Amino acid sequence: MAFEIKRIGIIGAGQMGNGIAHVCALAGYDVVLNDISPDRIRAGLATINGNMVRQVAKGLYDEDEKQRALSRISGADSYTGLDDADLVIEAAVEKEEVKRRIFSEVCPHLKPEAILATNTSSISITRLASTTDRPERFIGIHFMNPVPLMQLVELVRGIATEDETFDSSKEFVTRIGKTYAVSEDFPAFMVNRILLPMINEAIYTLYEGVGSVDAIDTAMRLGANHPMGPLQLADFIGLDTCLSIMQVLHEGLADSKYRPCPLLVKYVEAGWLGRKTQRGFYDYR
Ligand code: NAD
């Protein structure tokens, strides 16, 4: 039996959070977009508007539908804005301590029956659930980037996730027009367990001087038919997120094959996080 979801809260208005807000509003849900920074909320809303303008220009829907979707989204820089949400999706940075702090602060504001989900790319759902007041109503709903374009969502149950939470999440994913794949709760789930070691290996390939940035990306685009080279993809994901995922794989699976490349560590230490900071393996300035 699924629980009826009408209003959705999203924590984190970054590239994933604003993408999730975008697809939820278009599917007819009321959406509250929360972030610690009012500037990030404003930037998130501006990104949604810009992405919808492009979709209208492509003929995917009309201006009226766009306006209706935008009117369903409001911003909130405090968790009180989430008190009547039926589903809250956390999409803040990929740091376990940050997510734990968010859950301890947000839970007292939520309705007891609200479902709490995380968009984590790699962290244990069972462990995150244990830091909340509702492990039975906690689940991983892992979107892909960019959310408005990518079809897949991974659904990950923690050990305590009850059937109603799982069924409601499946119904939600279907209603926003996405396809789900169910993953067991292991480090980085399925997509990133396979994708991130490939990206990390591409960074080692650069680090060891086997090829240049252009050569590596061209090789994988034209030689393996990938739509985007692995270094460009790393820049799009965010190098901080890539490093966090590799660290979760390395620690969680205790295998040296997941050791984050020192060059990735160095870029993150430099604040070169990819497209979102204008500099990564490519220069976007
Ligand atoms: P991002 O850096 O673009 O955005 C993170 C946002 O979280 C920022 O706006 C920041 O201000 C906000 N934030 C930080 N602390 C907060 C708090 N306490 N309360 C509210 N907001 C807070 O990151 P992103 O790429 O959108 O990633 C967000 C999550 O989605 C991460 O868990 C990441 O692993 C996951 N994810 C990322 C991708 C990707 O390709 N980037 C894909 C799937 C999932």
From TrEMBL:
Belongs to the 3-hydroxyacyl-CoA dehydrogenase family. Pfam families: 3HCDH, 3HCDH_N. Transmembrane segments: none annotated. GO terms for molecular function: 3-hydroxybutyryl-CoA dehydrogenase activity. Its EC number is 1.1.1.157. InterPro entries: 3-OHacyl-CoA_DH, 3-OHacyl-CoA_DH_CS, 3-OHacyl-CoA_DH_NAD-bd, 3HC_DH_C, 6-PGluconate_DH-like_C_sf, 6PGD_dom2, NAD(P)-bd_dom_sf. Residues 8-183 form the 3-hydroxyacyl-CoA dehydrogenase NAD binding domain. The keyword Oxidoreductase applies. Keywords: Oxidoreductase. Residues 189-284 form the 3-hydroxyacyl-CoA dehydrogenase C-terminal domain. This is 3-hydroxybutyryl-CoA dehydrogenase. It comes from the Bacteria.
